[in-house]
Specification:
membrane, transmembrane, about 80% helix, elongated, Putative membrane protein, transmembrane helix, about 0% strand, 3 helices, single chain
Length: about 90
């Protein structure tokens, strides 16, 4: 297939407009805002709990794998923080 053939095929693809009812759009925005704040709060709580567990382990003289747990928590924080901008970039 040539580039011209692909452009002809792509020309027939429908491009629907985004026409969500305003009341629904407002409710979805509210739910997404609450989910974003909950994700941020969970990330902060995860970092605090992991830090407390690390401090207790050091005080007891135990060696445990808290850095991997901290990396998972921080990875989740990055995912929550970048979810909105990524979706906006991909679908806007």
């Amino acid at each position: 297939m040539t580039l011209l053939d692909l452009s002809v095929l792509a020309a027939g693809v429908p491009q629907p407009e985004r026409n969500a009812p305003p009341a629904l759009a407002d409710k979805v925005d509210t739910v997404l805002g609450i989910a974003a704040w909950a994700g941020t709060a969970a990330g902060v709580a995860g970092v605090l709990v992991t830090g407390a567990m690390m401090a207790i382990s050091v005080k007891r003289g135990e060696s445990s794998e808290h850095m991997s747990r901290l990396a998972m928590v921080l990875g989740g924080c990055v995912l929550v923080a970048t979810a909105g901008p990524l979706v906006t970039f991909v679908f806007a």
